From TrEMBL:
PANTHER family: 2-HACID_DH_C DOMAIN-CONTAINING PROTEIN (PTHR43333), D-ISOMER SPECIFIC 2-HYDROXYACID DEHYDROGENASE NAD-BINDING DOMAIN-CONTAINING PROTEIN (PTHR43333:SF1)
Domain D-isomer specific 2-hydroxyacid dehydrogenase NAD-binding: 94-269
Gene designation: ddh
EC number: 1.1.1.-
Enzyme class: oxidoreductase
GO molecular function: oxidoreductase activity
Keywords: NAD, Oxidoreductase
Protein name: D-2-hydroxyacid dehydrogenase
Species of provenance: Halomarina rubra
Domain D-isomer specific 2-hydroxyacid dehydrogenase catalytic stretches: 33-300
Lineage top rank: taxon: Archaea
InterPro entries: D-isomer_2_OHA_DH_cat_dom, D-isomer_DH_CS, D-isomer_DH_NAD-bd, Dhydh_Halo, NAD(P)-bd_dom_sf
Pfam families hit by this protein: 2-Hacid_dh, 2-Hacid_dh_C
Family of the protein in this entry: Belongs to the D-isomer specific 2-hydroxyacid dehydrogenase family.
Lineage of source species: Archaea, Methanobacteriati, Methanobacteriota, Stenosarchaea group, Halobacteria
C-alpha cells in the first residue's frame, strides 16, 4: 500500500518525519502528488482528497473536514482520536497548577525584573478542589485521571451517565449548569457538533463560581466568546485558559489578550515531540488492516 503524506501550508510537524516513521513500519510512504496512492494522511482538507480511497486526519476533531461529502464520494475517512489524552491532560493540569500557584503572575513580573509576592489569599492548592470535565471521551478521560492524581475531586458531563476512571460523579448534558456550579475549574473537552456549538453561554458562565476558571481545550466555537469576555469583565468568573478560540489565530484587537487572568495558547495543547509517531502508528495499523480487507480503526465514514 502506498500512503501519501499530504503537504500543508502550516503542518503541525515536518511531513518528512511521518514518512520516515511509516517507512520504518514497512509502509510505502512519500510526499508529493496524489497520483496512484492508496491513502492520504492529511493535515487539513483539500478538494483533491475526494479522488483517493482513504483519508486519515492527523487530528481527533474533524469538524473542518466535509465528512458527508467523503461518504458520498466513497472515501474511507479515519481520524486520530485516542492519541491526545496524555498531552492534553498534562496541558490542562499545567493550566490548573499555573492559576492555583500563581505562576503566570510571577512570569509576568519576571519580564520587568520585579520581586513581589502575590497577595496571601490568592494562591491555593488543587487538592480537594473540584474540576468538572465536560466531555468524557478519550480526551476527557485523559484529563480526568491526571486531575484526579493531583488530588482533585473530578466530576464529568457526558450523554451516558456511566462512571469512568478518575471521575466521582457524572452529570448528563441537561444538568450542565448543576455540574459546573461547584467546580473551581470547568474543562471543555467535547467535540464540536451542532449540539456543542455555543454550549458554554452566558447562562452556564453565570452558573459558575466567581472564583472558577474555564479551561477550553476543545474548539473555540463551544464557547460564546462575547459572553466569556463579559463574564471576565464583570468578575463573574476568575479567569480562563484558552487553547481553542474562535477565530484562530485570535485577532490582535481581541480583549482576551488583555486580561491578567486569561492564558491564551495557540491551539497547541496536544502537541508533543512524538506526535508524528502516534499518528504514524495509527496509519500503519490501518494500512495493514485495509490491505487485509479488515475495517480500519477510528473510522468516521
Amino acid at each position: 500500500m502506498h500512503v501519501l503524506v499530504h503537504e500543508s501550508v502550516a503542518p503541525v510537524f515536518d511531513p518528512a518525519l511521518l514518512v520516515e516513521f511509516l517507512t520504518s513500519e514497512g509502509v510505502t510512504a512519500t510526499t508529493g502528488a496524489l497520483d496512484d496512492c492508496d491513502g492520504v494522511v492529511a493535515f487539513d482538507h483539500d478538494e483533491a482528497l475526494f479522488d483517493v480511497p482513504w483519508v486519515h486526519a492527523i487530528t481527533a476533531g474533524y469538524d473542518d473536514y466535509p465528512v458527508e461529502r467523503y461518504r458520498e464520494a466513497g472515501v474511507t475517512f479515519t481520524n486520530s482520536t485516542g492519541i491526545h489524552g496524555a498531552s492534553v491532560g498534562e496541558s490542562v493540569a499545567g493550566h490548573c497548577l499555573t492559576f492555583a500557584r500563581r505562576l503566570h503572575r510571577y512570569r509576568d513580573r519576571q519580564h520587568d525584573r520585579v520581586w513581589e509576592h502575590e497577595p496571601y489569599d490568592r494562591a491555593f492548592t488543587l487538592r480537594d478542589e473540584r474540576a468538572c470535565v465536560v466531555g468524557l471521551g478519550t480526551l476527557g478521560q485523559g484529563v480526568a485521571v491526571r486531575l484526579d492524581a493531583l488530588g482533585m475531586d473530578v466530576v464529568g458531563v457526558r450523554r451516558t451517565p456511566a462512571l469512568v476512571p478518575g471521575v466521582s460523579e457524572v452529570f448528563t448534558p441537561d444538568a450542565l449548569a448543576e455540574a459546573v456550579a461547584d467546580a473551581r475549574f470547568v474543562v471543555l473537552t467535547v467535540p464540536l457538533t451542532e449540539a456543542t456549538t455555543g454550549l458554554v453561554d452566558a447562562a452556564v458562565l453565570d452558573a459558575m463560581r466567581e472564583d472558577a476558571y474555564l479551561v477550553n481545550v476543545a474548539r473555540g466555537e463551544v464557547v460564546e466568546q462575547d459572553a466569556l469576555v463579559a463574564a471576565l469583565d464583570e468578575g463573574a468568573i476568575a479567569g480562563a485558559a484558552l487553547d481553542a478560540l474562535d477565530p484562530e489565530p485570535l485577532p490582535e484587537e481581541s480583549p482576551l489578550w488583555g486580561f491578567e487572568e486569561v492564558l491564551v495558547t495557540p491551539h497547541c495543547a496536544a502537541l508533543t515531540n512524538d506526535y508524528h509517531e502516534a499518528v504514524g502508528a495509527l496509519v500503519a495499523t490501518n494500512a495493514r488492516r485495509i490491505e487485509q480487507g479488515d475495517a480500519p480503526v477510528n473510522r468516521v465514514v
